Amino acid sequence: MKKTFRYIKQIAPWGIAIAIFVYLFQQYPPSKVLDAIRLVNIPAFIAFSISYFLILYLIDAWSMTKVIKRFSHPVKFRDILAGRGVTYLIMILNYAASQAAFGYYLKRKYDIPIFKALGIFLFIVYIDLMWIITLAFIGSLFQKYAVAGVDLGYTIQLITIVAYAGTLIWLAFWRRLPEKLIGRHIRIPIIEGLRKKEAFHIFENAKLSDYLKTALLRMPIHITIILSMYVLFWTFTVEISLVRILGNVPVVFLIGTLPITPGGLGTANAAMVELLSPYISSPIFSDGLITPKEMLFAATLLWMFSNYLLKICTGTVLLKCTSKGLFKPTEELSEEKAEEAAPHLHGNI
Fold it and tell me: Of the candidates 153, 124, 125, 131, which has an alpha carbon nearest to the alpha carbon of residue 247?
């Protein structure tokens, strides 16, 4: 029964993603999508796609190296670069499995306890999520959003308030602030059980300065992601103001972080089309052959495909240069348990 539930849990998000794409292709016929893709400046798109991927890959590995050094062992940048590159290949299908594989890699390479490694990944994911929420909040201040009659701006602002309030409570919990204020120990079995989980030990050691330093390390990733959309549309001869990019793209990625589909497949595409289509302009729209929504959907598909292709190529090449055994489950922790402990709430950035 447990294996069946796990299987359903892995398959269901893909089923939802397929259903969303079936709906989107009904709205935007494949023939129109292909017509839009034919309009892209291929040399510019390829050059930019590779540059974008390499920048994010290097910053991701570099920032992760810094965080691992702070909370665990001194590690070499080239080892983290190799391990991260291989797990990009797994990440396409299952984000939690990629984190588990990376944990096994660090265990065999540097003898870092697997749960400790997974805790570090969880800490980084938490920082990334707070960046996305913060940028989406800033974006909500630029304009009003109304999607299917829902005031999206108000929803985002409410989520931001809850997220930051939760962060303050989270910090107070791990720094034992309530106990310090009342001057005595508080021992509640459920709470103490949470404190004893190895994957959460990093939060007991992390200071406010660690949160801020890690946020600064990860900031270039999120800024690059947002600004990349401006260049992406340029390769399609589409114009949009930078203000609209700043106001809408963070919201798209916030929607993409929801654990509905793998890596935000479908949800991010649909959100990008709905939020940005009113603000793009191009001479190609005047003849009526391609609509702004069809163009945006085509751009998101090609961008998604290029990123996945680069991850597959990078992971495949590095896997040939790295022992596959480094990423296999260890005797001390099964793959199932490692995936359960790994972060799940994360868009496939």
Answer: 153
Phi first, then psi: give them for residue 265, nearest 5 degrees. Answer: -60, 130
* Whole-number Å distance between alpha carbons of 344 and 122: 9
d(CA 52, CA 267): 22
Exposure b/e, 206-240, CB count within 10 A at least 16 = b? beeebbebbeebbebbbeebbebbbebbebbebeb
Rg (CA), the chain: 21
Whole-number Cα distances in Å, 135 to 211, 243, 264, 318, 341: 17, 13, 17, 33, 27
Record the tokens describing residue 92, joined without a space.
Answer: 């396409």
Which residue intervals of 175-291 are DSSP H helices?
177-182, 189-196, 201-205, 208-235, 242-256, 267-276
Q: Which residues contact 232 (CB under 8 A, 6 or more apart)?
A: 45, 48, 299, 303
Classify residue 269 as left (phi > 0), alpha (psi -120 to 50) or beta: alpha
At 16-64, the pLDDT tens digits run 888 988 999 999 999 999 989 988 999 999 999 999 999 999 999 999 9
Residue 29, number of CB atoms within 10 A of its CB:
11
Nearest to 173 by CA among 198, 193, 203: 203
For residue 34, the surrounding DSSP H or E stretch is helix 30-37
**Model pTM score:** 0.88
DSSP summary character for residue 333: B
Residue type for 311, please?
K
Measured CA to CA, the distance from residue 322 to residue 34 in angstroms comes to 38
- pLDDT confidence tier of residue 175, bands split at 50, 70 and 90: confident
- Give the whole-angstrom CA distance, residue 8 versus residue 15: 10
